[in-house]
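Internal tracking record. Fields below are filled automatically when a chain is submitted to the structure queue. Please do not edit lines marked as system-generated. If the sequence contains nonstandard residues, flag them in the REMARKS field before resubmitting.
Queue: standard
Priority: normal
Entity type: single polypeptide chain
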Amino acid sequence: MLPDYLTFLRFQDKRFLPFLYLITLILLGFYWKNNGYVITRQDAWLVSGIVALIAFDVIFDLKAFWSYKRGVGNIDFSFFDGRRLSRAERLLSQPLAAGLLACCAVWLMIQGCLALPSAVYQLGCLFIFSPLVVYLMYGFVRHSCIKLVETGGAEKVKYKNLYRYVLLQMLVTVTLNVLTVVPLRNNPDFRLSEGYLSPRLMVATLVLCAIVLALNLFMARLSKCYVFLGRLFLKEIDFYFASSFPCRSLHAIPFWLRMVVLLLAQLAWIPLVALALTLLGWDIWFAAWFLLCVVPSLSYCYLHLYWRWQNDFMMSCDMYFRYIEIKKLNDLW
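SYSTEM-GENERATED OUTPUT FOLLOWS
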């Protein structure tokens, strides 16, 4: 007997909500720590942007996931019989629109939280209710995406290759990285006014790049296998989506050795960037300094995501062909 839609939601939310709280609290905690353990009204838009990007990220693949669930038919969707997709639902099912709405909602929530008399209450409300805003947006879009799947697949391929797909994810990741570390511009260890060749600045930047790399690799552990299967059902990707495999020789070596190579590259890169900026005499913002210095780590993150997601795509193709064969056998009976 197939579980009904509402039963599956309860099962899914027991796992999704703790994970959502974990990710949101890690990112907001980093921002709070980097900002000197305070959050003021001046930080409202930056914090709202972090939460909005989290909302965008969890909603981006939602339609594909429910296309997979609808395709394999392991859930009873009779709950949606006779229900139509409204214009508002169609609009908010777009990840960008949902992210912008979450941003505005969190900004208003922050204004309310900061009106509380104690900093403990302010931070408590912020850390408790920010993930809930994302969850409420996720729940609404989830309901809409299931109706949207019924409208059919894409008329043409939406994502031509995995390079562009990973690039979009990296843009979200880099933006999150910048928003969480930008408060460090006021930290004495990151004062650019002391000179780019300051040993304290370069060591602090190296440690920051290592932390950002570890956080990004932790986020990259989520599998996209079922998402790619759903996109195959929707015809948003084809079987040539990930036909190439970049940097095979680097992928062939053990992970720990890759990290050693990356550490050596990062150690050489930061002084080179500092020397180049000193010779050019440029005064740049801290965010630009961070982005220039973190290039080796971000480049590896891109390759790491590509390698993992290509493997996930190959698994999804195998599942798709198995599904087609099983469906043919069932039609014969």
